[in-house]
Design goal:
Blueprint (H helix, E strand, L loop, with lengths): L6 H16 L6 H8 L5 H6 L2 H19 L12 H17 L5 H10 L6 H23 L5 H27 L12 H20 L5
Helix pairs in contact: 1-2, 1-4, 1-6, 4-6, 5-7, 5-8, 5-9, 7-8, 8-9
Length: 210
């Protein structure tokens, strides 16, 4: 006999799907409750309102995505920094490409029509991950690299991982079949991006200060 999900789990699942498709402002509490099969008062009862449910839905999606794709990519913390960066970059790309991942698309909807509601929860969850990546980049650049160079390199590395795959997810979601699918072989694309990134970091580490 299949165990029934509790109402809060049904609400979270419904909210993740609808917020991903319509964003915060395009989503109604009634729509969430109808999809979850709950009373319309359930959102206030379990989450305290639509705003809190929005924040919890994004956090829930991120947690599930991290569970499927641990941010270190399964690479030992004792591995060389090149391997640790490779693990982190590939894990990030796999997360974005995963069709079950919803936190990136919810974030995209928030960027298109910002509410400010996700600022604090995103800061809390994402800053520790960014600090870990910055630490690896700092190690690769060496002790003479200033902090600005570290931050620039990290921003470029993350952009190479996020932008192309997120745009591909958006194309898939909007069914724009005429757009090229350049990452059909995710692992080959990820390895190319990592090699390109490591070469860039190595070149940057030899720069003279401006």
């Amino acid at each position: 006999m299949t165990k029934k999900k509790p109402p809060q789990e049904k609400l979270l699942a419904a909210a993740c799907d609808i917020f991903m498709d319509k964003g915060f402002r395009g989503t109604t509490v009634a729509e969430i409750c109808a999809r979850a099969g709950t009373n319309i008062a359930a959102v206030n009862y379990y989450f305290g309102g639509k705003e809190a449910l929005y924040q919890e839905a994004w956090r829930h999606c991120l947690t599930e995505s991290m569970r499927r794709h641990p941010p270190d990519g399964g690479v030992s913390p004792d591995a060389a920094p090149e391997e640790r960066l490779r693990g982190r970059m590939k894990a990030l790309m796999r997360r974005i490409a995963d069709p079950e991942n919803k936190d990136f698309l919810i974030s995209q909807m928030e960027m298109v029509n910002p509410t400010g509601l996700l600022e604090e929860v995103m800061r809390t969850e994402l800053i520790p991950l960014r600090k870990e990546t910055l630490a690896v980049v700092r190690e690769l650049l060496g002790p003479d690299a200033d902090e600005q160079r570290v931050v620039y390199c990290e921003a470029c590395l993350v952009s190479m991982c996020v932008h192309p795959l997120l745009m591909q997810r958006v194309r898939q979601k909007t069914k724009k079949t005429e757009a090229p699918m350049f990452a059909n072989d995710l692992e080959a694309f990820a390895e190319h991006v990592v090699r390109f990134a490591l070469a860039g970091v190595r070149a940057t580490s030899g720069e003279d200060e401006p």
